[in-house]
Amino acid sequence: MSATELRAGVLRGKVLPDRVVRLGVTGLSRAGKTVFITNLVANLLARGRMPALNAADRIEAVYLHPQPDMTLPRFAYEEHLAAMTGDDPHWPHSTRAVSELRLSFRMRGRGVLGRVLGPQVVHLDIVDYPGEWLLDLGLLDKSYEDWSDSVLDRLSKRPEGAGYLALARAEDGSLPLDDPKATALAQAFTAYLHAARQAGLADCTPGRFLLPGDLAGSPALTFAPLPKPASLPKGCQWAAMQARFEAYKTHIVRPFFRTHFARIDRQIVLVDVMEAVHRGPTALEDLRRTMAEVLLAFRHGKRGWLDRIMGTKRAERILFAATKADHLHHRQHPNLTALTEALLDEAKARADFAGAETAALSLASLRCTVEDEIARDGMVLDAVRGRLADGRRIALYPGELPSDPARLLGPARAGAPRWLNADFALMAFEPARFAARAGSGPPHMRLDRAAEFLFGDLL
Amino acid sequence: MVPHLEDPLKAPAMVEVDGAFDPGAEVFADLPEAPMMEAVAKGTRRNSAFGRFAAWVFGLLFALVLAVQAWRFVTGLWAAIPWLGYVALGLLVLALGVAAVQAAREGLAFVRLSQLDGIRQAALRAHASADLAQARNVVARLDRLYAPRPTMAAARAKLAQSQADVFDADTLLRLTEEALILPLDALACAEVMAATRQVAVVTALIPLALADVVAALLANLRMIRRLAEIYGGRAGTLGSWRLLRKVFVSLLATGAVALTDDLIGSFAGGGILARLSRRFGEGVVNGALTARVGLAAMEICRPLPFVAAKRPGVSATVAQALAGLVSRKAEASALS
After folding, report:
1. Boundary (domain end) residue, out of A233, A257, A281
2. Mind listing the pLDDT tens digit for each residue in A116-152?
3. Is residue A300 a part of any domain in this protein?
4. Nearest CA in chain A to B179
């Protein structure tokens, strides 16, 4: 806050400076970041469905800024909300660029002192970005050699990677760089990344290869993993690729991280655990490893006095959330939460140790099912009823998640090809039409708890 | 090692067994259930078998004497003046009927009081186990309890609407507490403060020794009865006495230290008043005691534990109650 602003505030009789909370929404592609942000904002604007947000009754007014940042597009809140709640509700399109949003709360003060000081303004800044780009954070600590080795190793285990692997094995990295060939390699690798993402695999680095934006074709995006040759003459292909990999890190990944994630106060990690379980042990293990790598990049922990003086930010609270909890009957939510906690245990333990507050929960950013029951073999199964993309309405019992997460994580770690004695069927439900209620946002599950944990103490 | 066949104990043995087992859970299977709690329960058990037997015998004897006396009285009258005998018989039957109705009402009041207790216990269990089904059950019971009150219809409707959005036991219970119980808390606090004031004034103004004690006792009983009514019990006379006993037990069990703490505060706070007048000082102390009793009674009658709301403090309640008294008194003295 500048001196001018401060003076203007004091002149208007406002004693307290505005507070800014940066919320980092982290999640891989298709984890539901956009829907989470949209419905969180909608439910903060109309708080009828936020009983767990304790500060809700002290909020005098909430305002969504039309243009929070001069250099970034604004998050298309209205557009996304219209998609989710319109006449023919559907999920918003996947995010292709970074956008930002600022929500301002005018809070009534607490107690006698609060009444004297008057209302305080708290700004909540949220950034939306393509989840693919988040994967790159895992590259920050890796050298080109490490990265190539791990990628090629993984490729050999996946059918989608056979094409590129043959190409890379045939390549001799000690030959001088030939640009058309490098482009061809990069394209083949990109094709593999697309195929891997189609198959539901989480780690598809580098993320910009999937969504290059205006960087398409630049040298920093024209590299691919190659096996290290025995000798490295000057100007050889491998060395050039290494240089481009480093350039990718310094010029693309690091600025992205610095502008959007290095300064967050609170963090929510959205994970689509159920989809991974549905796809099988490989996808679950893939998700676990990817999230562990990505979360390594963040600085968690309590802000000390030195941090305050220096202005260093740390994520003080981290919420690990399993999304799409509405695809599961609430009776199974504790199991889903336990699985999420165990899945992200590495990051959670590290954050706990650093002094950050962590929690896990199961949420549904936009609730699109109601709970139902299915009778089968004289038993009653707890199901959910929802609408599919083709317009059918079904009641679904997806199967029982084990109460002990190790039943799933153990086989996943061991590399089992499929679940042994568990079957988990999942359908992709579309948003349902709902009757709007005055003073309430669209329905959700536990968004209020998430909000309370993430920034309830700062309101 | 070769097993000695003549000594079967030394030979290795292996048998296949059926059935699942869980080494994690087995450890706790044979442990006695919370031995500490058991010991506490044993220590605080109210009556021994002999005591109950004695009470039964004495009660029966007393009832017998009463019945025989009544019968003698009626038959004696019959023999002397027959029509007066009929009147006496009619009155006796009427009295018995009234007593039965009274007993039934007291019994009903007991049931309602224990219902409040049951709801609170269920709420605590739901809270501890984070069981949404149990929490929903608690809310349904509370809803039934307050259904006859027209003043609470709006709050109940609002709760029913937002209940559908809640999937966690603790959030649901907190929401219910805020919607239904918080308004009742305000009424209850007002009742406690009124009683506090009353006792303080009575102690300060009634010149007779012991009369103030009786007045304070009556005020306390009335307050407890009103509190039970506010929270949905309808304590009868016996119920009020029983509640009073429970309140004192809980005061002694949980708050003995706090009691002295508060009283020290009250003595110190009442110091200035005590300088002015000994009786005013006593009034403040008695008032503080009443407030303490009232808040304990509140906790016993409240169908949900204090979670969303903060438990009202004794000192604050006394201060607030007496602030009203003193300012009013000051005004009164200024006017006269």
Report:
1. A257
2. 777 888 999 998 888 888 888 888 888 899 999 888 8
3. yes
4. A51
